[in-house]
Amino acid sequence: MSYRLVCKSDEIREKSMKMFRVDHTEVLVGRLYGRLFACNNSCPHRGASLVKGELKGDNVVCWMHGYEYNVFSGTLENMKSWKKEDAWMEQSSEWRRSGDLTLYPIMEKEGTIYVCL
Ligand code: FES
After folding, report:
1. What is the CA(19)–ligand 1 centre distance, in A?
2. DSSP for the chain?
3. Which of 19, 81, 88, 112 is least buried, going by the fewest C-beta atoms within 10 A?
4. What's the CATH code of the domain at 53?
């Protein structure tokens, strides 16, 4: 594992996130409360692209099924949205299962952001 240059600091504004390809890995980089985070862009639930989601509190909300993951701890915080409609019948509880986000160490130095993969 080594730190890789991702972008200039001013590309990641407060309460925003962007996806970068580092080697063959899609890395989501964002900033909340002035603090940077980096995680794999693939949703741990079913692999949707998290950059298409939105930030809510400390969480990134996946656009596909609405699961919420804490961007600093990686923890799955909310999966209540799995049943969007009362009429929705669950075929298998396995479908709901999700791991946590894969986080990467991130640092900012002299106006440049680096992630460790
Ligand atoms: S793929 Fe992200 S919540 Fe299902």
Report:
1. 17
2. --EEEEEEGGGS-TTEEEEEEETTEEEEEEEETTEEEEEESB-TTT--BGGGSEEETTEEE-TTT--EEETTT--EEE-GGG--STTPPPS-GGGG------B--EEEETTEEEEE-
3. 88
4. 2.102.10.10
Per-residue pLDDT tens over the stretch 30-77: 999 999 999 999 999 999 999 999 999 999 999 998 999 999 999 999
Q: How many domains does the chain have?
A: 1
Pick the atom of ligand 1 nearest to 81's CA.
3
Using the mean position of ligand 1's atoms as its centre, give its distance from the Cα of residue 1 in Å: 28
More confident residue, 100 or 85: 100
pTM equals 0.91
